[in-house]
Amino acid sequence: MQPIRSALAYIALSAAILVLVPGMAGLGAGAVSLAVILGWRDMRRVPRAVFLVAGLALVFAFGRDPGLIGVAAGNMSRLAGLILAVMLLSSVLGRTRDLQQISASLFGGKPLVRYLSLSFGTSLVSIPLNFGSVAVVGSLVGERVRTRGDSPATRNATRAVLRGFGVSPTFSPLSISVVLTLTLLPGLGSLQLLLFTVPFSAALVLCGLIWREPETVQQTEPAEPTASLAPWLRFGALILVICAGVFLLSQWYQLSYAHAVTLSCMGAVVGARLLAWSRKTNPPLVNMANVSNELAIVGGSAFIGSVISGAVLGQISGDPNVPAWLWPAIAACVPWVFFGAGLAGVNPIVIGTLAGGILGVIWPDTALLGLGIGMVTGWGVTAFGTPFAANALIMERLTGYRAMDASFLWNLRLSLAGLAAASLLASLVTIALL
């Protein structure tokens, strides 16, 4: 059964790559659905629930407006292909010696330096690796917990990894949050959005210095081996090439942002394969049989959000008569909606699809940046501040620190500060552009 599930994942990825060919969206959505159904027994409860709700959304669309199904299937195929491409890239890069050297070197230095290197290092690694960055760096934290015991140093390291990955939805041009936002708000430019969100993410990580535990000299970690400059340069060059490919494909060739990210990531994967062959090595093809959970959450959430937003938009006629002061108020509420839904276990993809799909249509064109900032920053705070976020659950498994403790005891005050700042920024930008 596993070879069939892996083949279906590759079919879904191929359909996302060839999305411009007629019929590929339906093929991709069908492959995703079959892969989820075949992996049902191995899935967790939350992905199962998301996919069941997606099935109900399909039944609803059949009765309400069958035209919604094609649009929803297209979104499902594109976003599933995106997450598969990123996961494939993560798997390929995870085998490199450079990444292991970089990850180990992040633990060196004094407490302040270690916290900053872990948080910003995890953010950097997360650009091409997505959740793979939590698995790579988090496994090193878990090993220290097992060998040296629980301490303020290991708890601060866990904080740094969670926060470092948590801000990646805010600044990474390859993150699904940025991709979804730019897809649903086509009038918004990527550079325009990142110009505001990158400084926000850096400020959020720096604010995390306030909310960490003091470490004594005895509790400070021993000196760690440092990576030479070469691995950092190679890894940084790879990130720049991938990001440059995204901007080239989306800006010059006018491809959708999601399609551009998928193609750019796959270009790096193919390049790594060709490099391996040139060195007389033939690494096995990555097995993607165990991606049912991710496909159910990403694909199911995209389908649900698309159907709901399409149904709601069908009830909106003409230009809504909204007072000007209400737009900045709505922009200020968007990050809190993401966070509140995350606390209830709702995946940010659902909220992002609903917010962008519904508000993006009626939002004033000149002030789309304010809505985009609210969506991306709210997604980021939700990623590190809620106990049901995937990175919090991964760190719980790797380190033994409960996701509830990490969210409510360690990160709650930082989350509230980040939400307040995100609301203020989104609101002020909306006011300035109206």
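(ticket continues) Second input and output from the same batch:
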Amino acid sequence: MASLVNCFVALSIISLLALPSNAQLSATFYANTCPNLQTIVRNAMSQAVNGESRIGASILRLFFHDCFVNGCDASILLDDTASFTGEKNAAPNRNSARGFQVIDTIKTRVEAACNGTVSCADILALAARDGVVLLGGPSWTVPLGRRDARTASQSAANSQIPSPASSLSTLISMFSAKGLNARDMTALSGGHTIGQARCTTFRARIYNDTNIDRNFATNRRANCPASGGDANLAPLDIQTPIRFDNNYYGNLVAQRGLLHSDQELFNGGSQDALVRTYSSNNAAFSNDFAAAMVRMGNISPLTGRNGEIRRNCRMVN
């Protein structure tokens, strides 16, 4: 009997030791090990956004593109090497993903304060939140405790990140595959209230789509010719391009969505009513966006003994 009890105790201890590998994220994860983390990230993001307002949108996009490829694990930050192919040169990221130097700066400051403690994945999650807040958007509590991937997947980046040409059904399906519903998708698309897009991503929209305001299309064509000028930029929200608000949805109602995938949210489909709600109720949008960001940040994080804490966000240890 005693041996059975001892066996049970031993198994219980083993089970408890195994728990961290499936640990849940927690807002207080670094409360004792790096108490100044959030201040360090906020100050660095404030400096970056003050230097270039667009960087808030760029960091938000980095976080989205990271989470949609094998979870929020900072895989997008890994550089290619002679023996390693990362995600930076996948089609959705090549010549458009930016803000890596800002994450490098934050990581350097965090390492100086809390050596080998905070993951690049958590830094990216906090920086995305702070970029939104600094541009006038909502705040939210960021659950922490992610660890960094030791690998990346260019093929997954090519196939799992929605294209600017996506239909509504494709958008709903791709978000659903990540555990996000149609409301989450429509709210998260509101991140396009800030930032800019390259001509190559919206050329087909302004020349071929019929559900577009004529004057809007004409104005956009002036800086996006039918051929050439692929890298020319246009604001995703023509009204308040550097302020995080609900004008993006008003633009959709007026058929002034810049990307085909944007206008799909308001095109006689299932999301029309929600787009109208967001267009007239900024609080509703802000609340749903914040909640959806938390849910997106919970996509397949590495925790416990999985992954690692990178010393340099661009390379594995």
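Agent notes: The radius of gyration is 21 Å. The beta strands are 196-198, 233-235. Closing as not reproducible unless the customer responds.
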